[in-house]
Design goal:
Helix content is 80%, strand content 0%. The chain is mainly α.
Length: 349
């Protein structure tokens, strides 16, 4: 029997990274599904053919294509069982190892099927609700973008719109993939059709909240992957907007260029030379700039924000950077509105 196991394990190996698409092709291959069921019957005394696909899904889990980067306790348990089960199975490449590992692989398999079934059953409604809500918000967001794109716009704005639109499309595809795994292809398609048919029109304030959350969530995910490209864009935008607050002060514009040197930060981060002290120096400068122009009524709130920032500065950048810049953007918008109102009143007097 170990020869059949050997043939099976060579199709989806464990010792190399395999794309999700490659694994999916095997999971949709009827011959491979049937041969896997025959193998499970012999090795694990399996009689329920529906468990074959659940077993094959373990390869998606093993290669980190199913659960996200923050798994729940039960998902963590499943990941551990999958590792033990598949590694034990893949080691059964001789008569001796087949006999010695048979009981162990049966134990892991039984626990995996039970745990996976419990996860799928208990969390199905909750997961579906969350996924459907996310799909609805994102698809409405994308529809709003497509319906309201202006024909005349700058290249930067157009590029930003295309980037965000592409990211939303990717997230929608990921949600639809998860719905298929949990509910099956037919039911997932029915869910998608119902969502499309019952899509609600959303207003500017709703879309703004959704877009902002998506932006900062994506920023967090990128930093966790050691991708700081969005940080450089953010710093450039902040510098430009600070200059706009004082359009005629070219001396301060030069100072801003010197203190928010995006290329320098890029080199420091690339070479692993960007330390906590450098981050603090940057944010202290940014805070000093915003406090020069925002109304004094906000000083106490900003001071409390800075105290909290110092207390949590030891956290990883994927938490502190998005949190800081999201708040900074908020104060920047307040300042812009206040200055615009001040200028409007000045023109009318």
């Amino acid at each position: 029997m170990y020869k059949e196991i050997l043939n099976h394990t060579q199709v989806i190996p464990l010792d190399s990274t395999i794309s999700e698409d490659s694994i999916q092709k095997h999971l949709l291959n009827r011959c491979f599904i049937n041969s896997t069921f025959e193998l499970l019957k012999e090795v694990c005394n399996e009689t329920n053919k529906s468990n074959t696909k659940r077993f094959l899904l373990s390869y998606l889990i093993y290669h980190k294509h199913l659960f996200n980067d923050n798994p729940t306790d039960i998902e963590t348990e499943i990941v551990e069982l999958v590792g033990n089960m598949l590694n034990t199975l893949h080691q059964m490449n001789s008569d001796k190892l087949y006999i010695s590992n048979l009981t162990l692989v049966n134990t892991y398999y039984s626990k995996y099927i039970d745990t996976y079934t419990r996860w799928a059953t208990l969390d199905k409604k909750q997961i579906n609700t969350s996924l459907i809500h996310a799909h609805s918000e994102l698809s409405n967001t994308q529809k709003y973008f497509n319906d309201n794109q202006k024909e005349i716009t700058t290249d930067d704005i157009k590029e930003t719109q295309e980037l965000l639109n592409g990211e939303i499309t990717g997230k929608l595809e990921d949600i639809e993939h998860r719905l298929k795994i949990i509910n099956g292809v037919k039911q997932a398609e029915d869910i998608k059709t119902a969502l499309t048919a019952n899509a609600e029109t959303i207003h500017d304030d709703s879309i703004l909240k959704i877009v902002r959350k998506a932006f900062w969530d994506i920023f967090t995910e990128e930093i966790e992957k050691n991708d700081y490209s969005r940080l450089y864009v953010i710093l450039d935008e902040i510098k430009s907007r600070l200059k706009t607050l004082i359009p005629n002060r070219h001396d301060i514009h030069i100072e801003l260029d010197q203190n928010i040197d995006v290329e320098l930060y890029k080199q420091m981060i690339t070479n692993g030379a960007f330390e906590t002290a450098d981050f603090m120096k940057l944010i202290e400068y940014l805070i000093s700039q915003i406090k020069q122009y925002i109304a004094p009524v906000h000083d106490t709130e900003i001071d409390l924000w800075v105290v909290n920032l110092y207390e949590n500065i030891g956290d990883v950048y994927s938490k502190t950077l998005p949190s800081f810049f999201e708040k900074y953007y908020n104060y920047l918008e307040i300042t812009e509105k206040e200055l615009e109102e001040f200028r409007r009143l000045s023109r009318n007097t």
